[in-house]
Amino acid sequence: MVDLDKIGSGLELPPRQHLKALEISLKEVVALALENNYDIVIGRYSPEISKLGITNEEAVFDPTAEAAVGSQRTTTENVAQVRTTEELRSGGAEIKKKFTTGTQVGLGYQTKDNRDPASDGQYNTTLKLTLTQSLLKNFGIDINTARIQLAHKNLAQSTLDFSKQIVDTVADVQNAYWELYKSIETLEVRRKSYELNRRLLEQKKTEVQLGATAASELTELVSTVADNVTDYQEAVKTLEENDINLRSLLNLPFNFEGTPVQIRLVQSPDFALQDFDRAQIVQAALEAHPEYMKLKSQIEAKEIELRVNRNQLWPELEASASYGLDKFATGWRGSQNLDTGGDNYELQLKLSYPLGNRDAESNLKKSELELKQLNKRLAKQALDIKKDISNALIALKQSGAVVTSSRNNVHYKLQNLQVNEKKLKFGTSNMRDYLQIQTELIEAQLKLIESKADYEKALVEIYKARGIVNPQLQVELPEMQPQTSSE
Asked: Exposure pattern of 189-219 as b/e (b: 16+ CB <10 Å)?
């Protein structure tokens, strides 16, 4: 005789944990990610570091002050073995400044005190103004501020990199949110399926005891309950993996760290078919996509570099002029004191040119090739953007159609199950058919859950392909800093 008490024993679901719930919406998840995500926190420093690069390049045109003092003592001995000692003390200071035109100006003051015990000594001072101007190589504001312009381009590229990081991270967080939603709903379907079959098993066991049903009908039902338990355990594993993934993106503690907390999503997919104008969003993407805009900035930077390298092909022609005032004094130790003074000026034109100039020619050729390469990359990036947007639109359309068909399928499968339940109750259907119809309903329910999540993820991919964040999430991307000239 069959021991009915042992049938189905051990086929129990693990007890449900009642943890403190962290109820969170999609917008709140994104806000947490922007505040806590390590990639965002790390990336936020890059534009600030690039700003300092601009300051470093502008500092080249800051005035420079120099000062020096010195002392020299010389002892000589003639053939008569008479020793003579001469002391020279000097000091000076100079202020120099470089301008964006390639002009350098210096104003210096120097004093020398030549003391000779055998004479009255000599003291002289000089005040001198010096002007130097590059005429061919390194001439012009555009050339001399090139490094500042490149630093501004570097800041723009760092800002665009950070914008892309925000777009990518927000997309990852949204996808993780919907994956967790899918696993939570899947687990609930698996649990309800188990509970339904478990109740049916207990009901059939009672019917066997009353002699209304043959014991052989329990075998297939017990096998189904066992499958339900396995499916449930697999759903738990998937849920825990998705929970960990979302926590890592938000930098939240895991459940083995401190007090366990259950993430409870308060937002379900708001399935509403959306339509996008392909040409319009492609055009918008080519005007705002961070990767596309970064390549354009790199091209502009390379054009600046190209201008500088062309300039370096010129000979170095430097004109310089100076004007000085001199003051001499003698007789510091004697009774006589004769002061003299005057002025002096100097003009110079200096030409320098490396024979062959291969270094400059090589740098120019390299810049020209790299500029062509960047233009091809820009064209490829435009193609990739169009492809990604097209694929995302196709995925959105397909997943929307799947949601609609899955809804209908669940409705019809549920009706079929209800009809078969009545047939099973009155003995006009068998257990195998009933369990098969129930399995089909579960698969339809899971497909509906998956298609809803896929639709939301397809929406995410459309905004990601455009290089922006869904405006409903109210995420502001960093603004580009305007370029300012430096004198």
From this structure: bbbebbeebbebbeebbeebeeeebeeeebe
pLDDT in tens, 340-397: 778 889 999 999 988 888 999 999 999 999 999 999 999 999 999 999 999 999 999 9
For residue 80, report the phi and psi dihedrals to the nearest 5 degrees.
-85, 10
321, 309, 354: which is closest to 103 by C-alpha?
321
| pLDDT tens digits, one per residue of 39-78 | 999 999 999 999 999 999 999 999 999 999 988 887 777 7
Q: Residues with Cβ < 8 Å from 422, sequence gap 6 or more?
A: none
Rounded to 5 degrees, what angle do the CA atoms 389, 394, 398 make? 150
Question: What is this structure's pTM?
Answer: 0.84
Whole-angstrom distance, CA of residue 394 vs CA of residue 386: 12
The number of helices, as runs of H, and strands, as runs of E, in the chain is 10, 8
C-alpha 103: how far from chain center? 40
The label of the residue with tokens 């806000």 reads 31
For residue range 227-278, what is the model confidence (pLDDT) as tens digits? 999 999 999 999 999 999 999 999 988 877 767 788 888 888 877 778 888 9
CA-nearest of 482, 479, 481, 483 to 166 is 479
- 89 pLDDT more than 60: yes
Cα angle 134, 138, 140 (rounded to 5 degrees) comes to 85
Q: What percent of the chain has pLDDT over 70?
A: 92
Structure-block tokens of residue 409 = 């399928």
Report yes or no: 235 and 13 within 8 Å, Cβ to Cβ: no
195: left (phi over 0), alpha (psi -120 to 50) or beta: alpha
Tokens of 366: 């390299």
Q: What class has domain 4-57+148-306+359-473?
A: mainly alpha
- Strand spans (E) along 219-336: 261-265, 316-330
Phi, psi angles (nearest 5°) of residue 110: -140, 140
Domain ranges of the chain: 4-57+148-306+359-473, 83-144+317-357
Q: How far apart are CA 48 and CA 50, in angstroms?
A: 5
For helices 26-36 and 217-250, angle between their N-to-C axes, nearest 10 degrees = 40
Chain centre to alpha carbon of residue 159: 8
Q: Say which DSSP state 472 is in.
A: G
Amino acid, res. 142: D
Q: What is the dihedral of CA 466, 467, 468, 470, to 10 degrees?
A: 50
